[in-house]
Design goal:
The protein has 23 helices and two strands. It has 536 residues and is mainly α. The chain has a two-stranded antiparallel sheet. The protein is globular, with a radius of gyration of 22 Å. Keywords: Membrane, Transmembrane, Transmembrane helix.
C-alpha cells in the first residue's frame, strides 16, 4: 500500500519536465539572441552540457542517499555542518527564487493578453516591471502554488503530470509551425563574423545571464524528492537523464526556430535591437499565425504555473532538510503526520517568496539572481561525490559512475566559469546574499557552545575563500563580463580555470568524517537492504 503512494519513473520525469519547461522557453531564446545573435544556439548547448555534467555527480550521491531535500544535505555528510549550511542555503536561495519568478512570468504575459475582455490585465506591468496591481495577482498565484502542494504529494504529481503534456506539446508545435511559416537559414550567417556578430564572449555570458542555466536547473527536483520515489536506486538516475535530454532537445530546436523564423526586416538594426515583450507570441503575430499566438498566450500562463507548483515542492523539502543541520528553528523541519509533507516549510517559503517580489519585480532580475545562486550551490556536488569515495569507499553505490574522477573536476571548472559569466556585480551581490546566512549559522553554533566548530570551519574554509576569490576575479575581469578589464578576455577564462582546479583539490583534501557521515551510513545501509530484498 505504501509503495502505491510513491512516484513512478513516468511521474518523476513528468514532474521534472514540468519544472524544466517553465518560463525559460518563453523568454530565453529572445534574451540569448539579443546577447549573442545566431551564436545563441551554442549558449544552449554549453548550458545544457554544464548542467548535465553537474547532474552526473548527483546521480551517484542521490541514489546512495534517496531522501527528501537531499541536495541540502550531501555537503554536510562529506565536510561537516558549516559547508553543509552554505550549500543548503545557496540551494534554498536558488529554489525559493523560482517560485516568484514563475508567478511574475505568469503575470508578465497576462499583461500582454490581446483580448478585449483582458484589458484589465494590462495594468499589471509597466516598463517591464510588475505594478502594485500586478503584485496582488503574483501573491495570489504564489498562494495557489503552495495550496496545490499543501494537501498531498499525489495531488501535486497528478497536477504536474496532466499539464506536462501541454507544456511539452506546445513548444514542439511552436517549433514546427514557425519553421514551416518562416524559414531563413541565412539568418545564421555565411561566415564567422555573421554567426558571432558580437564576438564569442557574449555566447558565454548568455549561458548564465539569459535564463539558460535557469531553464535547465530543475533536474534537482528529482533529487530533492528522493524518499518519495518508487525504486529510487533505479529511477533517480534514469529520471534525471531522460528529463534533461528531452528538455535539452526542445530548447535547442526552439532557439534554432526563433533564429531562422525571424524576418529579415526585423533584423535591420541587428539582433541587439529585437524588442519583444512576449517573444514567441509576438513573433507568431508578425508571421500572421494568430491562432498560435493565442495558444502561446495561454501557455504563458500554464508553463510558469506548472513550474511554480513543482518548485514549491522542491523548495519546501530543501528548507525542511536544512533543519537537520540544527541551524534553523525546529518547526521548519516539521513533517505533517497525516500528509507526510513539510507544510511549515511551504508556508515559510511562500511568505519569503512574497517578500522577494516586493524587491525584484521583473523576470530578468529574478533569473539573474537565481542562476548565480544555483551555480554556487552546485560547486559542492563534484567535491562531495569524490570526497565520499575517499571517506566511505565501503558505502553501497547503486550507480557507481566510471568517469567520476574526470567529470567531477571538469564540472567544478565549468560551474566556476558559469558563475564568472553571470557578470559583475551580480556575482558579488549573490555571494553577499549567501554569506548573509552565516550569522544565522553562528547564532545556532553559539547555542550549541561551538562544539566541533573548528573542525567544521577548517572543512569549509576552502569554499569561503573561493567565494572571495571569485568575487575579486569577477571585479578585475573582462568588460564583456562586467569587470574593469584588468584581466582581458580570454585570459580571464584561464585565470578562472586555474583557480577552480586549485580550490577543487583543496576541497577534496578538506573532507572530514563527522557525526553527520555516520547518519549517512545508516541511511545507505537501508538502501542496500532494500536493494537486496528486491533481488531476492
Amino acid at each position: 500500500m505504501k509503495n502505491k503512494k510513491k512516484m513512478s519513473l513516468f511521474s518523476i520525469v513528468m514532474i521534472a519536465l514540468s519544472s524544466l519547461i517553465g518560463s525559460g522557453w518563453l523568454f530565453g531564446s529572445w534574451e540569448a539572441s539579443k546577447m549573442a545573435g545566431p551564436a545563441a544556439i551554442l549558449s544552449w548547448i554549453i548550458g545544457g552540457l554544464i548542467i548535465f555534467l553537474i547532474a552526473y555527480n548527483y546521480i551517484e550521491i542521490g541514489t546512495m542517499f534517496p531522501e527528501s531535500g537531499g541536495m541540502s544535505k550531501y555537503a554536510q555528510y562529506s565536510h561537516g555542518s558549516l559547508l553543509g549550511f552554505i550549500a543548503a542555503w545557496s540551494n534554498w536561495i536558488s529554489l525559493i527564487t523560482i517560485i516568484p519568478i514563475e508567478a511574475v512570468a505568469t503575470v508578465q504575459y497576462m499583461s500582454n493578453w490581446p483580448w478585449s475582455w483582458a484589458r484589465f490585465a494590462r495594468g499589471f506591468l509597466a516598463h517591464g516591471v510588475i505594478t502594485n496591481a500586478g503584485l496582488l495577482v503574483v501573491i495570489l498565484i504564489i498562494i495557489i502554488f503552495t495550496l496545490i502542494n499543501y494537501w498531498s504529494v499525489t495531488l501535486m504529481a497528478n497536477f504536474t503530470s496532466l499539464i506536462s503534456f501541454f507544456k511539452i506539446g506546445l513548444p514542439i508545435l511552436t517549433i514546427l509551425v514557425i519553421t514551416f511559416a518562416s524559414f531563413h537559414p541565412s539568418n545564421y550567417g555565411t561566415n564567422m563574423h555573421q554567426f558571432f556578430p558580437y564576438g564569442t564572449a557574449p555566447v558565454l555570458a548568455a549561458t548564465s545571464s539569459a535564463g539558460i542555466i535557469f531553464s535547465f536547473n530543475a533536474f534537482q527536483t528529482i533529487i530533492n524528492m528522493g524518499s518519495e520515489i518508487e525504486k529510487p536506486e533505479k529511477y533517480i538516475g534514469k529520471g534525471i537523464v531522460l528529463s534533461l535530454l528531452i528538455s535539452g532537445i526542445i530548447y535547442i530546436f526552439l532557439q534554432s526556430a526563433f533564429i531562422t523564423a525571424m524576418p529579415h526586416s526585423a533584423l535591420a538594426q541587428g539582433w541587439q535591437h529585437l524588442n519583444f515583450e512576449s517573444p514567441f507570441a509576438d513573433l507568431a503575430i508578425v508571421l500572421g499565425i494568430n491562432w498560435l499566438a493565442i495558444l502561446l498566450y495561454i501557455d504563458a500562463f500554464v508553463s510558469p504555473f506548472g513550474t511554480g507548483v513543482s518548485f514549491v515542492a522542491s523548495a519546501s523539502r530543501a528548507l525542511a532538510a536544512m533543519e537537520s543541520n540544527q541551524h534553523l528553528p525546529k518547526f521548519v523541519g516539521h513533517i505533517s503526520s497525516k500528509y507526510r509533507l513539510p507544510r511549515a516549510a511551504m508556508v515559510v517559503n511562500a511568505c519569503l517568496s512574497i517578500v522577494m517580489v516586493f524587491f525584484f519585480r521583473s523576470w530578468s532580475l529574478l533569473t539573474t539572481v537565481l542562476s548565480a545562486a544555483t551555480l554556487i550551490a552546485y560547486l559542492m556536488g563534484p567535491v562531495t561525490a569524490v570526497s565520499l569515495r575517499k571517506l566511505g569507499p565501503q558505502l553501497y553505490r547503486p550507480i557507481k559512475l566510471k568517469a567520476l574522477k574526470v567529470i567531477a573536476p571538469l564540472a567544478f571548472v565549468l560551474t566556476s566559469l558559469a558563475i564568472y559569466w553571470s557578470l559583475w556585480p551580480t556575482t558579488i551581490e549573490v555571494i553577499g546574499i549567501i554569506l548573509l546566512g552565516l550569522p544565522l549559522y553562528l547564532f545556532y553554533e553559539q547555542k550549541q557552545h561551538f562544539v566541533g566548530f573548528k573542525v567544521n570551519f577548517r572543512a569549509a574554509l576552502w569554499m569561503i575563500v573561493y567565494l572571495f576569490v571569485l568575487s575579486v576575479i569577477s571585479y578585475l575581469g573582462s568588460r564583456h563580463f562586467g569587470g574593469i578589464n584588468w584581466l582581458i578576455y580570454p585570459w580571464d577564462q584561464v585565470v578562472v580555470i586555474i583557480s577552480a582546479l586549485v580550490f577543487y583539490e583543496w576541497g577534496i583534501q578538506s573532507a572530514v568524517k563527522t557525526k553527520d557521515l555516520q547518519e549517512a551510513f545508516q541511511l545507505n545501509a537501508l538502501v542496500q537492504k532494500s536493494a537486496a530484498a528486491e533481488e531476492n
